[in-house]
Amino acid sequence: MSLCSVRERLRRTPLSDAVVRRIRALGLGRERGGAVRLSDEQLREGRRRELGRMGLIRAAANLDELPRAAEAELALAGRSNVGKSSLLNALVGKRSGGTTTRGLAPVQNRPGVTRSLNFYGSERRGARIVDMPGYGFAFASDGATAQWQAAMREFVVSRGGLLRVLLCVDARQSLRALDREFLLMLDREAGVPCLVVMTKCDLVPTSELARRFAVLEADLAELGLRGLRAGVHMVSSRTTAGVPELRRAIAREMPKGWLRFPRGGTEAAEVGGAEAKAGDAAEEEEAEAGAEPLGRTARRQRAKVAAVARLSQRVAAADAWARRKSRLSEQERSSRGRSRRRRQFGG
Questions:
Q1: Residue environment code for 70-79, b if the CB has 16+ CB neighbours within 10 A, otherwise e
Q2: Alpha-helix residue ranges (DSSP H) falling in the chain
Q3: Average pLDDT of the segment spanning 242-260
Q4: Average pLDDT, whole number, for the chain?
Q5: Which GO terms describe its cellular component (predicted)?
Q6: Are 174 and 1 in contact (CB under 8 A)?
Q7: pTM over 0.85
């Protein structure tokens, strides 16, 4: 679908007052005065650490490194740079900075940062979230990208009904061909249920966001997916607006006890009685004190992911310096040429 046709569809799509009210109630959209401000209660709920202590379990770059299947897993999927890692951080109550990570998963403002299937979980409970590489453009070789895609496809197909996929779509963009192909593969080949969420919803004007929401729902309906869960969700990982509502939708898809996400209102669901609650409180205190969430293996895996992120930064910096050096060399050669011509012609 061309950019012009998307704009034309947005122009022709009627503005739904109900969707606009929902966007404003969630604290999403951008008004004339700037981004919508959240209430203190919305901020507190959005930043709650509903999963307790989470840490990196495994970083799998190929099929041989995939861990055994858990009782249930949630995988974040989508095109490169749509905000999957930032959303993961928001879901677990961690914060992401603008260009570098301050949360659980590494985050940078460039596509292709996540270069492996990163499995995050808790030793005490069965909660497991998988941050998958983005499909589409990335700062990586064709061979590396093909390796990620193969590992990602094998993971999704092999997990089957044990997996739930959260497909992330940038609110500023439309559903692309790669998104459609991935959704059809999930539904027809893997039989994996899927939820869809629009990310970066604080960056889009409210009326445009409402129209983009309607267009996305129509595009999804055309695909006729059996495993697509009803309702498109909207969030901002930066402000956490819409994150509590998404948590509750995820909780309804997962087995009881898989996580602490609230299933109904704002109160957390029961997990294991008073003993589990006491353990959760102790975990929160340790987390605030900066305690290591997992053991030696998790630390090694976390260091591996951090090393990959640092290497990616160094490669990008080297590429930028090489381009700058090339431009300077061209400018210097051009300057020398002008000097020679002036000497030859007495300029």
A1: bebbbbbbbb
A2: 3-12, 17-26, 40-46, 84-91, 142-159, 177-184, 206-223, 243-253, 273-288, 296-345
A3: 83
A4: 75
A5: cytosol
A6: yes
A7: no
Q: What is the pLDDT of residues 157-173, one digit of tens each?
A: 988 888 999 999 999 99
Greatest C-alpha distance within the chain: 93
* pLDDT tens digits along 60-96: 877 788 888 887 899 999 998 898 988 998 888 766 5
Closest CA to 95 of 46, 26, 50: 46
Higher local confidence (pLDDT), 1 or 56: 56
In this prediction, residue 93 carries a pLDDT of: 79
**CATH code, domain with 231:** 3.40.50.300
Six token digits for residue 266 = 């704002």
Q: Please answer whether residues 173 and 134 qualify as being in contact, where contact means their C-beta atoms are separated by less than 8 angstroms.
A: no
When pLDDT is averaged across residues 168-196 and rounded to a whole number, the result is: 93
Other C-beta atoms closer than 10 Å to the C-beta of 214 total 18
Residues in the chain: 347
Task: Kindly state whether residue 313 falls inside one of the protein's structural domains.
Answer: no
Report the number of distinct structural domains present in the chain: 1
- 49 lies in some domain: yes
Q: Does the residue 27 lie in any domain?
A: yes
CA distances in angstroms from 326 to 25, 277, 296, 312, 331, listed in the order given: 51, 60, 45, 21, 9
- Within a domain: 134: yes
* Bridge partner list, 195: 166
In single-letter form, the type of residue at position 128 comes to R
Range of the domain at 216: 3-279+286-296
What confidence category does residue 342 fall into, taking pLDDT thresholds of 50, 70 and 90?
Answer: low
CA 303 to chain centre: 20
Q: What is the pLDDT of residue 334?
A: 72
Rounded to whole angstroms, what are the CA distances from 289 to 121, 280, 285?
20, 14, 6
d(CA 299, CA 288): 18
